[in-house]
Each structure stands twice: as structure tokens, then as C-alpha cells.
From TrEMBL:
The keyword Signal belongs to this UniProt entry's keyword annotation: yes
Protein name: Aspartyl protease
Signal peptide residue numbers: 1-31
Presence of keyword Signal: yes
Keyword vocabulary terms for this entry: Signal
Lineage: superkingdom: Bacteria
Lineage: Bacteria, Pseudomonadati, Bacteroidota, Cytophagia, Cytophagales
InterPro entries membership: Peptidase_aspartic_dom_sf
Amino acid sequence: MIDVSARNLISMKTLLLSLLLSLALVSGASAQETIPLKNYFRELKQVEVTIQGQTYNFLFDTGGGETFVSPEVARKLGRTVYGRGTAYRMRGEQFNYQKADSVALQVGKVSFSPATVGVWDVMSILPEGLPKVDGVLSLKTFRDKVLTIDLAASQLTLQTPASLKRQRSRLTPLKSRFASGLDGNELTVFLEIPRRKHSYWFLFDTGNISELLLSHHTAAEWGLQNDTTSQRIALNPIALLLGNRKLVSQAAAESILYDGVLNYGLISQARFTIDFTTREVWMH
């Protein structure tokens, strides 16, 4: 027979266990997952990606549009390679690739749902002699997440609803566009750059490790060149207004498809959070 004191002790233990479990659940719901970015070549960053228990090195490129695995990786996975995708690089060069279905990626401790990826050998456009990379990790992988990009700290952070809520009041919203490519299968982000009472839209491209790029028409409209020649023109450093801050970068004018392309040097001067579920972008 249990006496009153024993019953009280059991009740207290049960209450304590319930409280600890609740705290653990709350902590888990608000926990952020940090993904380290490793140096690759100059400012290019790479990420460790696990597929079926095997670890690979992928380039991290926010301007890439599609997540790619190399043909070698697709063969190792036993995936059927099929179809044809067409994309354009920022200078207008067309390239074609194939696809593979049901590829599940794990980045850090986070597993992403199986998805269709592009099959293409990124080494074909990189300088000879560089270490092998097995694919490209693009923003498309994070299409149902909230991602913070901090290039200065060489890390990505996956936010939870709770962690984003805690930060929202301190973040500066940016006007943005989310683009899905020719066939609706890509994912890239453009940020508004206000200038001379007009809006210019610049590709958010961590893979651009050269200067901040302006199209010749943009440079001419900004009074930075006298014509729209197709030749590359080096420009003086430019300050761009993003949110309530001015970020400065070396710049050049080139024949490109967009108004402009942000580069690693400028993006690394701030932290950016992208909510792909609501299609919002903020700067820290």
C-alpha cells in the first residue's frame, strides 16, 4: 500500500519528467542547424553533402538555379539519367544537362526530401588542376526552408519558425524576386537596387567571385560609361543601397543577361535570410 508521502513523491517526479520533456520539445523546435562552408578556390565555397551514406563535395552557388550531381555520382546511385534541361549562364552561354529522379541529400544533420536534380559535370567549366567536386548545391535544395547565408563566417544556418520569429524585428526586409527559369524548375533570387528613381534587379550570386557586374545598359544609365559596347569595362568601386545600408564593391560592366549580378565580395559584407516558403528576403 502506497502512503501519502510516496504518492506525493511520485507526483513530483511525474511533473518534473513532464516539464523536462516539454522543455526538450521547445528547445528542439527552436534549434537552428548550422552548416559549415569550406574553402575551395579563391572565394568559391563547398559543402559536404551525403547521399546514401557516401559523402561528396558540392560547390555552393546561389546563382546556379539547379542542384546538380555529376554523371559519375548518378551512376553510383544507380539512377536512370533522362530528359534534357536547358539553362543560360549570366553571359548568355547556353548549356544543356540531363536529370535524375529521387535523389535524397543530407547536408549536416538535415535531410532533404528526394527530388529531381540535374546531371552535369561542373568540372567541365572549372580551371584545370582544381580538386574534384561532385556537384553543385543551389538555392533550389532549400526551397521549403528558411536559410541564413553568412559568407563572412563561412556558414549557412537553417532557421526554425521560432528562431526566425525571435529575429524578425531586427531584420531589414529587401524587395526581391524569385525566378524559376525557362521551364519552372530552377530557383534563383534577385534583389532590387534602387537608382535614379528606377528599380534595377541584380542576381544574388555567391558563385560570382569577380567584380560586381553591371550590364552595359545599366552602366550607361547610371552614367558610368558613354555607350553600350560589348567590351568588358572596368569601373570604379560602386556603392549599392541594399535596405538601409550601402555596400561597396569593385565593379565592371559586361554583356550579361540581367541588370546586374551581385558578387561574393559584396554579399559577404552582410548576412541574408531567405524564407523560401513566403518568398521574403531580409538583411541582418
